[in-house]
Amino acid sequence: MPGQPVSAPVPEGRIEKLSDGYAVAFDRQLDYPTAHIWDILTNPDKIALWLGQISPEWQLGKEYTLEMDGGSSSGTVLQLEPRSSLQITWEDQLGSDSVLEWQVLESDGGALLLFRSRTDTPDFIAEGSAGWQGILEAFASVAAGREPKPDSMETWLSLRDAYAEDFDVSPTMGLVTGSGPDAELIFNRWYRAPSEDVEAAVDAAGRRLSVGEEAEMEMIDDGEETRIVIRQPVTGSQDQTAALLAAWHMTLDSVRDQLDGSMPHPNSHRMAALERFYRSMV
Known about the structure:
Layout: E1 14-18, E2 21-30, H1 34-42, H2 44-50, E3 53-55, E4 63-68, E5 71-81, E6 85-91, E7 97-107, E8 110-119, H3 125-143, H4 153-167, E9 175-177, E10 184-191, H5 195-209, E11 216-221, E12 226-233, H6 238-259, H7 268-281
Antiparallel strand pairs: 1-2, 2-8, 3-4, 4-5, 5-6, 6-7, 7-8, 9-10, 10-12, 11-12
Helix pairs in contact: 2-3, 3-4, 5-6, 6-7
């Protein structure tokens, strides 16, 4: 109805803590035969409609590359059981590794699609959960013969924040909001440490990576967790903005490592990958 507020997106998946890492899990009932769902999952022409251009097609034990909007991935097919199970390794443009698995089961006259993404760390897991929800929605549209509708940045961001809150995992990625003289970068990070320890770690990591002098930091400490918001005006070129986002990202990762009692290990390869990632975003 006109004037009715748009409801906020709701997480349809789960973020699960495992003994050796984390998993993003979705269980989706689809009212189509399993053969049809398997075709959407494995036919390169269909894959291009909901995920990206794959080369070559999924083949057991073989490597693949996947070109998607805004990025690419590569990996190896670990398991391929026709009409049943597909498992692959997945290395994204930042060099992060995960294992993805789809299972197609007969259920209620249709198919139950089970999706799992397993990774060692919680990095980008809230962002990834929101992204996979959109991808699986596109999969369902292709299965129904409809053209997928891409999510807006606002929808994706709202869904990312919902996953972070519902499953108590920190957001990872920085964003640029506004334009012209009002443009600024924003990072939200959550740490299991007192605010004074977080502030000291941010100052130390910022000095190492030469960021922080022009930034503002807000902190909320509830006694168990400190949430920080970093804001800094953005005045440079696209390349300079991407470099600044990458430097802040590395800084906040170093803060996490320091607070966890491990030695921060900033490296040039990671920095370059982050710069490429943020350049594609800004």
